[in-house]
Design a protein that fits this description.
The complex is a heterodimer of chains A (372) and B (331). In chain A, 49% of the residues lie in helices and 13% in strands. Chain A is of the alpha+beta class. Chain A has one domain: Cytochrome-c3 Hydrogenase, chain B (Orthogonal Bundle), CATH 1.10.645. The model of chain A has no long low-confidence stretch (mean pLDDT 87). By secondary structure, chain B is mostly helical. Helix content of chain B is 67%, strand content 0%. The longest helix of chain B has 35 residues. The N and C termini of chain B lie far apart (51 Å). The model of chain B has no long low-confidence stretch (mean pLDDT 83). Classes of the chains: A alpha+beta (372), B mainly alpha (331). Chains A and B meet through helix 4, helix 5, helix 7 and helix 13 of A and helix 5, helix 8 and helix 11 of B.
Chain lengths: 372, 331
Amino acid sequence: MSSPIQLQTDETFVLNVGPQHPATHGVLRVKMEMNGEYIVNAETVIGYIHRMHEKMGENKTYPQYLMNLSRMDYLGALGYSHGHVLVVEKAAGIEVPERAEYIRAIMVELNRIASHLFWFGAFVMDLGGFSPLMYALQDREYILDMLEAVTGSRLTYCYFRFGGLYNDIDDDFIDAARRFIPRMRKSLIKYDKLVTGNIIFRKRLEGNALLSKETCRKYGASSAVARGSGINFDVRKNEPYSVYPDFDFDVPVYHEGDSLARYMVRMKEMEQSLRIIEQGLDKLPDGPIMPKKKPKLIKPPAGDYYQAVETARGSFGVRLVSDGTKTPYRLKLRSPTYSNMHLFDESCRGMMIMDALAFMGSLDLVIPEIDR
Amino acid sequence: MSLTLLNVIFAVVVAIAFAAANAAYLVWAERRGAARIQRRPGPNINGPFGLLQPPLDGIKLMAKQLIIPGGADKVLFIGAPVLAMYPAIMSFVTIPFSDSIVAHNINVGILMIFAFASTGSMSLIFAGWSSRNKYSMMSAVRAVSQSVAYEIPMLITTITVVMIAGSMDLMEIVHQQSSSILHWNIFPLLGKSHNILMPASFLIFFICTLAETNRAPFDLGEAESELVAGFHTEYGSMGFGLFFMGEYANIVIGSCMTTILFLGGWSCPFGLFPGVWWFLLKLYLLIATFIWIRWTFPRTTIYGLLNLSWKILIPLSLVNLLLTAGLIKVF
């Protein structure tokens, strides 16, 4: 299985997996040096969908850049916007009304569930089971409809503003969200019965691609990749931001370090997100969604600011260097998948191609987010 | 032309028509079935219930250009899809649908069907080899190891049934099971053999049929998420169409064999309607199971697949063979 085998011959061939390949879910290219079915060496080649988001950040004013963030990760876009607005608010000293922060948290968690649902379906499809994707998409559709009603878009949201939100949520949304929570809990039980208990599924994932704590730390992995290897790190708990300290939720951690552990972490995370949404809806305060006092032109004072958030794919950091003008001097985006993906090169050596691609699926890669 | 030659031509034409119609409409059934399982409508636009979808798909495929990749072995590349389709069609010639409906019965029917079936994997090898594509090549290698591993338990189980019947004639095998439901080979309480392990034999045969027809969860040759489309990655147009139809024709053959060997062929548990309908009922129930399994299970791994065959199925089928032989001697 994942233990490297003694390779008998020196004769190898190079297999180009991607940039157009069903398993890479985007334009990631993996140059695999193969010995039959076994991988001798793998090299991930990125940059096929590089759009210079960081450079754009230096040329656009702060509000102009808002929509770029949601184009980074098209599955969990709100988490990324959250990081960006938080760092600019920190830099410019903008107060955010409490209601806006609560709504932000609810939206981000909904988006996280949507993202995890899509990953769940795509991951099982990587393993050859097509049906769970359709079930997952049905639940995801419900979330997207809810988000669309409030934010105006289904995938690439531009919902957060500096200091608040673009649109307040209404009773319809709250009703829909309240109905969604029990429905999703039921669905999660169904997924467990349908997929988690499946013998083929378990046999393929148990012991597949064991990642040690050290490897995860070395590459700066976060999200389920780190938490599946026993590293209890979640930005929401360890470096609290926004209103997350108000919520009571757990960080699921598994110590096995195999693909099944990563799968389990994400499945449990969805349950925790549901808890956060439930509490958020209960505690939702009244009030404005934009601050009364807000500078017309956002010009943060010169300085170096950093804010990390926990997105669906892990710890996302925005570093903002301002020189006091209306555009940033430097906007560095620390994308979690970039770190998670680079584990792959080292860890897949000696694996069979089908195990390696299952491993790749368990990393939850979104390529536009790597290339930025 | 002599009458025999006419008969043969007629038989082949009917077999081709049956195979092609089945293959085309099983694609439709598969897509509708998958849609049912996944809670979506499936093809429902063309004709009532989307029933015109298969002929339209066929027209589309035929209208497309057949692209032969540069550096490919042309003869094998064009020959491989034909080779995928013909064993199934030839096998239909000898399959008895009822007492009287059989194109041409021969007394070594089983031998003939398995001889043709084993050439089926040649088409995958040829397609994989001639495409000049690494994915296709890997798929071909997988297909070889898979067919070697699964033909053995399949044949051993068949020998068990042949031993019970004492004949290789498919008609004869069905006749021996036709007294009552308890004479069926799947659970022969009254037949010649009283082997209680026969249900296991049935399962082994069914699993082997799944593997031999490259169906999920054993579709390692096609392995969409790993090998793109496996052996038919480079095929377009009707070349792909033939592979596709060949797969379904093989499923029909596999299900026919399962019905005849284990489920009593056209013999009816409580004769409501003529035997041929019973045969078709059993046949399509088995095919529905194929579809059901495909859309429920994820794919196994290559080592999981080989382990299952060499470590479980082959020993079990050998035990069953010995047990049956012993029981026949005793009773």
